[in-house]
């Protein structure tokens, strides 16, 4: 391991001397220091803080990624070009140790920069959030929405009731002779789906009742939680706004425990409002009733999607969340550096940069590419899909693409951080597997195999 | 090798040729840009601040692409609720394309309409709505002075977002804006306070040198005629051209020149002219009023810094800014103490403000009418209007001259102001932009309508929480004539089908408006004006929509008005008459609460007439079941119901306090005991008002109680009154 660390140390020093890295670092420092004063967001304190975190972490990720691409591609290919590697290769250093040392050296530089910039970003964010606010609500938003780590709870699906209703319906259809008993199972699935959809629908003059469980008790008397929702009106109102009433009731008795509040919001967009947690969360449960405006309205309210109604409550600290977000950035950089070194094993520097850069761009835009291919990011092959060459190709190709190119939009802690959402360990674990381990396999299995068989003196394009 | 060179040469020649061809089209492209008014100015760098100039130069032709991407991202963030990001991107878009008016318009609309509704407190809502106005007023328009759509957007924000009642927080917008203007300009002058009879005759003239309403109407007419011609061509029909004069001749009605409206307008003009004629700079002020120099030095010693430096809104409103150090104590000097201050149990700021006001008066001599002090005030008013609110007194005079005595504390006055600015700016563009001119003219129409509905304002600010200030609106009879003129000039031009008066499209609106105007004028004792409009109604709209003669217009003016309250006095029952009487009494009490004792008395007089007319043949034993209580008793019952309205906030109680203070003694004595424990005391306790100061016991109550036992029984559930006990039930 001493040889590995020696190579890593040399690589680290080489990185500091590299112009592209220095330039990236200078630009990064300038941006991070300038942003708190240049970015005003929506002029609220919470907006400024979120804006600063979004753009500073974004700049850190992008600039460091570019620097990593160039650095990782050049560190080995430069030695090929200058024939320095000939000297190293003759030493009692294995090809594996060379690769490992290079990769560790690149990542050591990344770790150093991420730690320094991360500390600066945190310090400046702390400075911003400690400024005096213009509105009281701003202070609550910073404390309980942004400078925290929250979990989004979805309402508990009343599966038992849905199941009972679906079974009763199927029985009824069979008794009436409208359904062949052979198709009972399929019909039951359909009724279940329909009942689940109906549960998310509130007809005019009706009230939807939604129970949330597993909520953490509030820390303070004035702690607020956020209710987030996305509603669609059908038919679409002429002014595209929906009038909706919200009231929290006792989870057991159903008696109202908050005043009925009416909101008028645009249909189809995501909205949120804050509510004091102490009165509404009882024994980890909260029950929210959603009122579809007075009977003269003709619009049905539909909660669009699984995450269309959520209560967000605190589960952790901002600091830990921040560290996790930086860790995700590091894991992505580790993958990029592995890919860069991998390509530099068998192609020249420009080609390696091109390939690694393309890899980075594809990973960044995975949702776009998948959509272009006609699938969404959660594509699962449909077993009922028509069999044929095309179907087989899609069933094979798309999972392969998704495996080969990790979705950097999914493995991104920044969006969750600025929304005050907890970065779960599960996401971190998946990120480790799909970036770090994937990069290690790519570099130290395939890359090593190629490097081991390569004649160093041979000219490569 | 030679082939490669040849290919390179050919490629180079093609490149040069294509570049030349593209360059030759640039003048056509620019002409198109000017026609579409996408160029706010002829030069992109004109008046651009350094950071904008950097972006324009740095990104060059890629600005458009970057702006497109930023726009898409901003929309996406808005859909996701990430407004901090959307607003930041909007700012960058404006920085990249400062001379493209549409980006400013979009950003301002986003702030005032979309982002504001994501907040739920009055302060935040006002902050966002006003941010949209400031963006256009302070940045968008200075960089795009000829962009009519920007002026229209400001006017629309004032008229629609703040002026209408659709937004849940519209009251907060109105009070916040009223506070700003009240602090600076105060209430409008009384109609007779400022008028000079010698100048009145010389200046009042029905034909104005520059009638912006008619100008806008003419532009719209020309556009409509062009559309008619094109449609006739498409259908292959013969097109008969019309002239503007032909169309408007049948609708022209001589405007009233001698009226309360004219008096009020002249008073307003006089006051504005004094500010308009005030010097711009301190040196000019010192030259005209030498004592002003010493006043300025003494004010600086108090921490009130007056100089010729550009004043921003932030500086004006900061703690220690002129809004609080100068204008707040100045208002305290020149205006009566507000109702709220007199009834609050504790007013922690009262002593401080009084001391400040006294110090100011010692320097400026306001109460004594010191000319130098008054001149200094007007200099500062002009400065703040121009530099903080970007309001030019020249255009403010135009507004009053053309449309009437607006109350500048009203948001609709300012929608009218920005419309006027937009029309003037539009007239100075290289090409006309007809679409925006039409829309701005429509905004004028809505603004005038709202001024008729709300220009009579009573405003008592409560600075600690401005959205809790007392703001009461009433119909302003001075805007009946401008509104009437707007209907008859504008209506026929918008409706290609034509028709008498305002045209078929606006006929119903015009008729309803005139009906209400006639009633209000008649009840206010302005019978001559009421008769003028009644005759117009009879002559212009003698039939209903089915073409049959309208029987209501065959009545006398008196019957026409009074029959609108009760269909037929002779055949009405006691219940119908009582409802009509109580309705009129309620109107009278509202006028008295608003401070108009004259109108209160006139309405009460009409009530008396109605009462006597009904009762003239009811005072016989046979008619016992059909008689009303005595007139005073009916009035007292109506008053009780008026006070019995549930006070959901302190403003409603303030409204009641204002009425209580203005009521005649006999009425206060009649209802005091019934209201004290049930309404007065609980409300005062709820809002921490001093009961004795809010609703003082009327003098002589002991004697009154002895002579007048209470008529009101204690409420029991089984007592079912035929009349509602509370208004609004």
H/E element string of chain A? HHHHHHEHHEEEEEEHEEEHHHHHH
Question: What's the main sheet of chain A like?
Answer: 6 strands, antiparallel
Give the strand line-up of the largest sheet of chain B.
Answer: 1-2
> Roughly how many Å is the radius of gyration of chain B?
31 Å
Biggest sheet details of chain B:
2 strands, antiparallel
Subunit arrangement of the protein: heterodimer
Description:
The complex is a heterodimer of chains A (461) and B (729). Chain A is α+β, with helices and mostly antiparallel strands. Chain A is built from 15 helices and ten strands. In chain A, the strands form two sheets. In chain A, strands 1, 2, 4, 7, 9 and 10 form a six-stranded antiparallel β-sheet that branches. The longest helix of chain A is centred in the first third of the chain and has 38 residues. The model of chain A has no long low-confidence stretch (mean pLDDT 87). Chain B has 729 residues and is mostly helical. Chain B contains 34 helices and two strands. Chain B has a two-stranded antiparallel ribbon with strand order 1-2. The longest helix of chain B is centred in the N-terminal third of the chain and has 24 residues. Chain B is globular.
């Amino acid at each position: 391991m001493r040889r590995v660390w020696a190579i890593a140390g040399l690589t680290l020093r080489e990185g500091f001397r590299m112009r592209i890295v220095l330039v990236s670092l200078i630009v990064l420092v300038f941006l991070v220091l300038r942003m708190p004063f240049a970015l005003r967001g929506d002029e609220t304190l919470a907006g400024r803080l979120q804006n600063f975190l979004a753009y500073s972490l974004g700049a850190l990720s992008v600039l460091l990624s570019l620097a990593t691409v160039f650095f990782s591609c050049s560190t080995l290919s430069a030695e090929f070009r200058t024939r320095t590697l000939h000297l190293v290769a003759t030493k009692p250093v294995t090809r594996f140790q060379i690769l490992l040392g290079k990769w560790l050296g690149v990542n050591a530089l990344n770790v150093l920069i991420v730690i320094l910039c991360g500390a600066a970003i945190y310090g400046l964010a702390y400075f911003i959030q400690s400024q005096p606010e213009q509105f009281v609500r701003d202070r609550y938003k910073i404390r309980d929405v942004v400078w925290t780590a929250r979990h989004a709870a979805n309402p508990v699906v009343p599966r038992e009731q849905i199941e009972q209703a679906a079974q009763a319906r199927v029985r009824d259809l069979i008794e009436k002779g409208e359904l062949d008993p052979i198709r009972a199972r399929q019909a039951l699935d359909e009724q279940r789906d329909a009942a689940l959809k109906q549960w998310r629908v509130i007809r005019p003059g009706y009230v939807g009742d939604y129970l949330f469980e597993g909520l953490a008790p509030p820390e303070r008397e004035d702690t607020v939680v956020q209710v987030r929702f996305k509603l669609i009106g059908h038919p679409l109102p002429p002014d595209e706004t929906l009038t909706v009433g919200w009231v929290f009731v006792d989870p057991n008795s159903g008696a109202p425990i908050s005043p009925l509040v009416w909101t008028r919001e645009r249909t189809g967009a995501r909205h949120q409002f804050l509510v004091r947690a102490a009165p509404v969360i009882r024994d980890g449960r909260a029950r929210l009733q959603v009122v579809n405006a007075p009977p003269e309205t003709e619009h049905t309210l539909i909660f669009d999607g699984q995450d269309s109604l959520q209560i967000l409550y605190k589960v952790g600290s901002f600091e830990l969340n921040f560290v996790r977000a930086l860790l995700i950035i590091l894991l992505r950089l580790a993958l990029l550096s592995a890919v860069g070194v991998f390509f530099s094993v068998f192609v020249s520097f420009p080609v390696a940069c091109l390939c690694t850069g393309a890899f980075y761009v594809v990973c960044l835009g995975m949702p776009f590419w998948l959509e272009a291919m006609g699938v969404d990011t959660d594509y699962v092959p449909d077993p009922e899909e028509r069999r044929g060459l095309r179907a087989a190709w899609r069933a094979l190709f798309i999972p392969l693409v998704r495996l080969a190119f990790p979705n950097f939009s999914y493995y991104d802690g920044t969006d969750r951080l600025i929304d005050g959402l907890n970065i779960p360990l599960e996401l971190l674990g998946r990120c480790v597997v799909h970036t770090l381990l994937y990069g290690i396999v790519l570099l130290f299995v395939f890359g090593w195999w190629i490097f081991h068989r390569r004649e160093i003196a041979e000219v490569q394009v | 090798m030679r082939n490669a060179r040849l290919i390179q040469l050919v490629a180079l020649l093609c490149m040069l040729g294509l570049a030349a061809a593209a360059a030759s089209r640039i003048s056509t492209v620019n002409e198109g840009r000017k026609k579409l008014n996408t160029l706010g100015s002829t030069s992109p760098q004109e008046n651009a601040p350094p950071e904008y100039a950097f972006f324009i130069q740095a990104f060059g032709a890629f600005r458009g692409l970057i702006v497109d991407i930023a726009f898409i991202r901003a929309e996406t963030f808005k859909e996701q609720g990430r407004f901090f990001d959307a607003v930041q991107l909007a700012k960058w878009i404006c920085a990249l394309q400062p001379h493209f008016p549409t980006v400013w318009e979009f950003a301002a609309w986003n702030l005032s309409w979309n982002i504001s509704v994501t907040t739920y407190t009055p302060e935040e809502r006002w902050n966002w709505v006003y941010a949209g106005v400031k963006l256009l007023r302070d940045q968008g328009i200075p960089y795009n002075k000829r962009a009519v759509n920007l002026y229209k957007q400001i006017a629309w924000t004032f008229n629609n977002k703040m002026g209408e009642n659709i937004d849940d927080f519209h009251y907060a917008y109105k009070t916040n804006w009223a506070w700003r203007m009240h602090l600076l300009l105060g209430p409008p002058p009384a109609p007779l306070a400022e008028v000079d009879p010698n100048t009145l005759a010389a200046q009042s003239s029905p034909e104005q040198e520059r009638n912006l309403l008619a100008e806008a109407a003419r532009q719209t007419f020309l556009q409509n005629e062009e559309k008619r011609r094109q449609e006739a061509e498409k259908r292959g029909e013969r097109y008969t051209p019309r002239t503007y004069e032909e169309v408007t001749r049948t609708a022209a009605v001589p405007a009233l020149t001698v009226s309360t409206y004219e008096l009020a307008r002249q008073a307003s003009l006089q006051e504005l002219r004094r500010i308009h004629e005030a010097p711009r700079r301190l040196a000019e002020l010192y030259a005209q009023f030498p004592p002003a120099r010493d006043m300025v030095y003494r004010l600086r010693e108090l921490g009130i810094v007056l100089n010729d430096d550009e004043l921003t809104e932030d500086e004006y409103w900061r703690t220690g800014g002129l809004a609080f150090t100068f204008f707040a104590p100045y208002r305290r000097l020149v205006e009566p103490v507000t109702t709220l201050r007199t009834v609050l149990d504790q007013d922690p700021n009262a002593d401080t403000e009084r001391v400040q006001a006294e110090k100011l008066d010692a320097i400026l001599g306001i109460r004594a009418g010191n000319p130098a002090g008054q001149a200094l005030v007007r200099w500062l008013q002009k400065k703040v209007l121009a530099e903080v609110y970007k309001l030019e007194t020249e255009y403010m005079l135009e507004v009053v001259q053309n449309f009437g005595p607006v109350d500048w504390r009203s948001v609709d006055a300012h929608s009218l102001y920005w419309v006027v600015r937009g029309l003037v700016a539009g007239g100075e563009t290289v090409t006309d932009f007809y679409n925006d001119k039409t829309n701005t003219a429509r905004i004028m129409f809505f603004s005038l309508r709202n001024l008729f509905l709300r220009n009579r304002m009573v405003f008592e600010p409560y600075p600690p929480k401005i959205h809790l200030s007392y703001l009461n609106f009433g119909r302003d009879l001075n805007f009946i004539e401008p509104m009437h003129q707007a209907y008859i000039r504008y209506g026929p031009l918008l409706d290609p089908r034509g028709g008498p008066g305002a045209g078929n499209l606006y006929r119903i609106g015009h008729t309803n408006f005139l009906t209400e105007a006639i009633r209000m004028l008649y009840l206010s004792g302005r019978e001559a004006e009421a008769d003028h409009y009644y005759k117009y109604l009879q002559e212009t709209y003698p039939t209903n929509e089915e073409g049959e003669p309208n029987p209501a217009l065959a009545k006398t003016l008196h019957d026409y008005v009074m029959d609108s309250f009760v269909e037929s006095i002779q055949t009405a029952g006691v219940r119908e008459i009582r409802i009509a009487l109580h309705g009129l009494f309620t109107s009278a009490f509202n006028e008295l609460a608003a401070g108009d004792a004259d109108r209160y008395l006139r309405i009460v007089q009409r009530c008396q007439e109605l009462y006597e007319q009904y009762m003239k043949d009811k005072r016989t034993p046979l008619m016992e079941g059909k008689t009303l209580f005595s007139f005073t008793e009916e009035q007292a019952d109506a008053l009780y119901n008026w006070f019995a309205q549930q006070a959901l906030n302190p403003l409603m109680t303030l409204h009641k306090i204002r009425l209580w203070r203005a009521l005649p003694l006999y009425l206060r004595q009649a209802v005091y005991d019934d209201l004290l424990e049930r309404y007065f005391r609980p409300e005062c306790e709820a809002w921490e008002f001093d009961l004795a100061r809010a609703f003082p016991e009327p003098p002589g109550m002991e004697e009154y109680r002895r002579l007048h036992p209470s008529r009101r029984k204690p409420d029991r559930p089984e007592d079912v009154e035929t009349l509602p006990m509370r208004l609004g039930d």
